[in-house]
């Protein structure tokens, strides 16, 4: 459930008309609903309330905006980060370092040191090589890194191939059958406190069954490790819960997810950690756009050309993903159209032959479910700059990221003397 609803014939974000935001901030603009973020955070936690010890870390990659992170911090979430930049943001938003988990297959020496110096709660190590490097850096600093070993359970998550992470051929984690040896070797190194195991098999999962299979494998691993006399106090079950992108689509609920996990993990006796991103932020944001013009086509539906493009919302171009597209002030009728942006490539297409609200030049519309993997994946391709982001809270809103103009971007570029 979200708080982007029609009231008196026009779309609102909570109690603020989207038309007002478009007027005052301009388009395209991402709009987040604080109430929706909070609701999703609470429903997620509530779903896990059947579990004894839980730590939730919001996956910063889904939406790293400082205001969004602040909402999550106030909801008691930590942060799952995958770069030094995300770590800095999480800390800047006020997340306690202890509540930060550092994932990622390519953490470099500088980032490992940054995490150690900040005193983050857990490093999710993705290879033996990374563990050895972290141990050396930690020992040299006289510090100890709390670590989990990320395992690759070789399970097909049944999601888009580009966001699947738990198959043997994916780059993530160590093969689960090699995990006992690697864990034992790392646990013997000064500088490391091996305290658990981590797993994440992919994103936008619409079925709990592959997760359950992966978690069962992790359960056997935990027993094996303990059987070898190794300590396991934490298991990080990652993120991945899917969200509905189409009106009416049904996804597993946090309550069903929690019930499945309670069943699988009942004998584990560990603190369970979670890294949800999309399920919290996805439906808490929209991308508000204006129709530039409607262009007739010679042999198909008209092109509705909007002022947002693939550089602002990359998901349709990258993964062929669907985002519902609705008029802010529906005119009543329907039309079939191709929805495209202004960028000079055919990939800049949001939908082909889609039945949508009737649109005319100048009309406002939204792409829904753009709160996760939206603004954060933007680029400045075609020198379009970066769009503004707004957060609504009841009757008020604030700009939480300024629009970055093309001239701001090229101000960081230089023409060397020998060219001028
Ligand atoms: N933990 C780890 C280790 C991850 O790799 C991810 C996502 C998450 C947590 C959060 O997953 P979530 O709960 O959001 O599904 N750009 C793609 C999604 C990439 C997800 C990458 N990893 C998209 O737009 O669909």
From TrEMBL:
<dbReference type="GO" id="GO:0030170">
    <property type="term" value="F:pyridoxal phosphate binding"/>
</dbReference>
<dbReference type="Pfam" id="PF00278">
    <property type="entry name" value="Orn_DAP_Arg_deC"/>
</dbReference>
<feature type="active site" description="Proton donor">
    <location>
        <position position="344"/>
    </location>
</feature>
<feature type="binding site">
    <location>
        <position position="373"/>
    </location>
    <ligand>
        <name>pyridoxal 5'-phosphate</name>
    </ligand>
</feature>
<keyword id="KW-0028">Amino-acid biosynthesis</keyword>
<dbReference type="InterPro" id="IPR022653">
    <property type="entry name" value="De-COase2_pyr-phos_BS"/>
</dbReference>
<comment type="subunit">
    <text>Homodimer.</text>
</comment>
<keyword id="KW-0456">Lyase</keyword>
<keyword id="KW-0663">Pyridoxal phosphate</keyword>
<dbReference type="InterPro" id="IPR009006">
    <property type="entry name" value="Ala_racemase/Decarboxylase_C"/>
</dbReference>
<dbReference type="InterPro" id="IPR002986">
    <property type="entry name" value="DAP_deCOOHase_LysA"/>
</dbReference>
<dbReference type="InterPro" id="IPR029066">
    <property type="entry name" value="PLP-binding_barrel"/>
</dbReference>
<comment type="pathway">
    <text>Amino-acid biosynthesis; L-lysine biosynthesis via DAP pathway; L-lysine from DL-2,6-diaminopimelate: step 1/1.</text>
</comment>
<feature type="domain" description="Orn/DAP/Arg decarboxylase 2 N-terminal">
    <location>
        <begin position="37"/>
        <end position="281"/>
    </location>
</feature>
<dbReference type="InterPro" id="IPR022644">
    <property type="entry name" value="De-COase2_N"/>
</dbReference>
<dbReference type="InterPro" id="IPR000183">
    <property type="entry name" value="Orn/DAP/Arg_de-COase"/>
</dbReference>
<feature type="binding site">
    <location>
        <begin position="275"/>
        <end position="278"/>
    </location>
    <ligand>
        <name>pyridoxal 5'-phosphate</name>
    </ligand>
</feature>
<feature type="binding site">
    <location>
        <position position="319"/>
    </location>
    <ligand>
        <name>substrate</name>
    </ligand>
</feature>
<dbReference type="Pfam" id="PF02784">
    <property type="entry name" value="Orn_Arg_deC_N"/>
</dbReference>
<feature type="binding site">
    <location>
        <position position="345"/>
    </location>
    <ligand>
        <name>substrate</name>
    </ligand>
</feature>
<keyword id="KW-0457">Lysine biosynthesis</keyword>
<dbReference type="InterPro" id="IPR022643">
    <property type="entry name" value="De-COase2_C"/>
</dbReference>
<feature type="binding site">
    <location>
        <position position="278"/>
    </location>
    <ligand>
        <name>substrate</name>
    </ligand>
</feature>
<feature type="binding site">
    <location>
        <position position="315"/>
    </location>
    <ligand>
        <name>substrate</name>
    </ligand>
</feature>
<comment type="function">
    <text>Specifically catalyzes the decarboxylation of meso-diaminopimelate (meso-DAP) to L-lysine.</text>
</comment>
<feature type="binding site">
    <location>
        <position position="240"/>
    </location>
    <ligand>
        <name>pyridoxal 5'-phosphate</name>
    </ligand>
</feature>
<feature type="domain" description="Orn/DAP/Arg decarboxylase 2 C-terminal">
    <location>
        <begin position="30"/>
        <end position="371"/>
    </location>
</feature>
<dbReference type="GO" id="GO:0008836">
    <property type="term" value="F:diaminopimelate decarboxylase activity"/>
</dbReference>
<feature type="binding site">
    <location>
        <position position="373"/>
    </location>
    <ligand>
        <name>substrate</name>
    </ligand>
</feature>
<protein>
    <recommendedName>
        <fullName>Diaminopimelate decarboxylase</fullName>
        <ecNumber>4.1.1.20</ecNumber>
    </recommendedName>
</protein>
<keyword id="KW-0210">Decarboxylase</keyword>
<feature type="modified residue" description="N6-(pyridoxal phosphate)lysine">
    <location>
        <position position="61"/>
    </location>
</feature>
<dbReference type="GO" id="GO:0009089">
    <property type="term" value="P:lysine biosynthetic process via diaminopimelate"/>
</dbReference>
<comment type="similarity">
    <text>Belongs to the Orn/Lys/Arg decarboxylase class-II family. LysA subfamily.</text>
</comment>
């Amino acid at each position: 459930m979200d708080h982007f609803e029609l009231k008196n014939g026009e779309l609102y974000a909570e109690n603020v008309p989207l038309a007002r935001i478009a007027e005052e901030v301009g388009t395209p603009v991402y709009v987040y609903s604080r109430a929706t973020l909070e609701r999703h955070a609470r429903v997620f936690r509530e779903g896990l309330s059947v579990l004894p010890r839980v730590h939730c870390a919001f996956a910063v990659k889904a939406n790293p905006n400082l205001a969004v992170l602040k909402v999550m911090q106030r909801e008691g979430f930590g942060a799952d980060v995958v770069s030094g930049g995300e770590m800095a943001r999480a800390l800047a938003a006020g997340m306690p370092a202890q509540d930060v988990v550092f994932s990622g297959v390519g953490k470099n020496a500088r980032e490992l040191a940054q995490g150690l110096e900040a005193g983050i709660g857990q490093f999710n190590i993705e290879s033996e090589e990374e563990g050895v490097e972290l141990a050396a850096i930690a020992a040299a600093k006289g510090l100890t890194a709390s670590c989990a070993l990320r395992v690759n359970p070789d399970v097909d998550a049944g999601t888009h191939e580009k966001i699947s992470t738990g198959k043997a051929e994916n780059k993530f984690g160590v093969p689960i059958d090699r995990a006992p040896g690697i864990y034992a070797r790392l646990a013997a190194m000064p500088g490391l406190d091996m305290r658990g195991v981590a797993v994440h098999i992919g994103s936008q999962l619409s079925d709990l069954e592959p997760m359950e299979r992966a978690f069962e494998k992790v359960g056997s691993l935990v027993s094996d490790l303990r059987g070898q006399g190794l300590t396991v106090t934490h298991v990080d079950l990652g993120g991945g819960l899917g969200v509905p992108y189409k009106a009416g689509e049904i996804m597993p609920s946090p309550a069903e997810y929690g019930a499945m996990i309670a069943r699988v993990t009942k004998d584990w006796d560990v603190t369970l950690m979670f890294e949800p991103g999309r399920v919290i932020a996805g439906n808490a944001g929209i991308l508000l756009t204006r129709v530039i013009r409607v262009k007739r086509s010679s042999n198909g539906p008209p092109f509705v050309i909007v002022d947002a493009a693939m550089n602002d919302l990359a998901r349709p171009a990258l993964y062929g993903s669907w985002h519902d597209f609705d008029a802010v002030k529906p005119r009543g009728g329907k039309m079939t159209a191709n929805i495209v942006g202004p960028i000079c490539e055919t990939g800049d297409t949001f939908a082909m032959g889609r039945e949508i609200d009737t649109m005319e030049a100048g009309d406002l519309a939204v792409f829904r479910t753009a709160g996760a993997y939206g603004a954060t994946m933007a680029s400045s391709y075609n020198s379009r700059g970066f769009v503004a982001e707004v957060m609504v809270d009841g009757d008020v809103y604030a700009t939480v990221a300024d629009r970055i103009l093309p001239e701001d971007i090229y101000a960081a570029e230089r023409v060397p003397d020998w060219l001028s």
